[in-house]
Structures are given as C-alpha cells and as structure tokens.
Amino acid sequence: MNRKKLQKLTDTLTKSCKHFNKFEVKCLITLFYNLVGDVPEKPGVVTGLDRNVFRNILHVTFGMTDDMIMDRVFRGFDRDNDGCISVSEWVHGLSLFLRGTLDEKMKYCFEVFDLNGDGFISKEEMFHMLKNSLLKQPSEEDPDEGIKDLVEITLKKMDHDHDGKLSFVDYETAVREETLLLEAFGPCLPDPKRQMEFEAQVFKDPNEFNET
C-alpha cells in the first residue's frame, strides 16, 4: 500500500475508532497488510484475514485454545459475515478486544456466548462451552454430570429472572456485581500480560511482529 493510501485509511479509521490514536491505527493497518501478504487489490474483492490466519493469531499471540470460542471471536470481528476480516474490522475489533470499556466487553462476550444468536444463553449453550473450556480430568465420575451441576450453579448465580436461561440483562447484572463472570463460559478476551506484550511489540514496530 502506498504512503498516500495508508495515510488516508489511517485518517478515516482514526476518526471512527474510539480507543486507538493515529499512530496506533497506522501500526495496526501495517500489521494487517503484513499478515495478509502481498495480495494485489482487485475491484469488488475484499482483502482480509481468513478464519485460519485469524485463529492462529488468537492461539499463538493471545493464548486461546478453545476452538468453539475462537470461532465465535472470529464472527465477532467479522461484522459483515463475509468470511474474512477486513482492515476496518481488524482495527475496530482490536479496539474493543484490547481496550474496550466494560459495557463494550459485556456486549461482545454475550454475543460470543450466545451460540445460536437468539438473544439468550441457554443451558445447552452453557453446557457445550463449559465442556469445551474445562480441562478433561480423569475420574470415576461421569464428567457430563459435573458440568450439568456447574450449569445449575451458574444459573443460580446469574439467572436473575429465574427463567432457566440468561438474557443480556441477567448477564449484565451478574457481571456488574462480579466482573470475574465476564468470561464465565470461556476466555474470549486476552489476558493483561499477552495484551501488553502484543501492544508493546506492534506499537514499537509492526514490521517486526512475529505470529509464529
């Protein structure tokens, strides 16, 4: 990308991006095009990060291991559902992912956990996510029973209107009372250490970033 185009894109995204300054936006755009590679731009064809490249970044850079959650995070970034993350989606997604307010993070996490997009986190969805995110422990007991018990305990704590599922209001109320519940069903945000490492590296020199 030539300097003039980069400058124009930086200016545009800086205006619409809440949590990054102009220099940081420019670094993230540079990193994006380094990750995408030298793909010639074609009219009507979106240049972007596909699911596999993005999942690799989540895994290697941010330490995520849960396939189901990583897939949902990809969907959270890919706002237009076209199967790849554009430069705009990349910058705006990272703005929330790295520096979002509690309100923004609650909305994002709820969308990640609402697997079928019906506006609720059901018992079945909780069961699938907790089963995926918990380490498999060798034991005599049926592990599914333990997870079902955990779902019931979670519902008792978070289901404020007692309808057997979590609405956003239930989730928000519970998280405001206890912020540790933000990622109750699996890690979908970076831990502070990895966040700081990523920012320190990318905002120093995005060309030196190494995702492997």
UniProtKB/TrEMBL annotation:
Pfam entry (one): EF-hand_6
Keywords associated with the record: Calcium, Metal-binding, Repeat
Gene3D superfamilies hit by this protein: EF-hand
Domain of life: Eukaryota
One Gene Ontology molecular-function label: calcium ion binding
All residue ranges annotated as the EF-hand domain in the record: 65-100, 101-136, 146-181
UniProt keyword Calcium, yes or no: yes
CDD domains assigned to the protein according to its UniProt record, in alphabetical order: EFh
Entries under PROSITE patterns matching the protein: EF_HAND_1, EF_HAND_2
InterPro entries referenced in this protein's UniProt entry, alphabetically: EF-hand-dom_pair, EF_Hand_1_Ca_BS, EF_hand_dom, Recoverin
The protein's name in its UniProt record: Similar to EF hand calcium binding domain 1
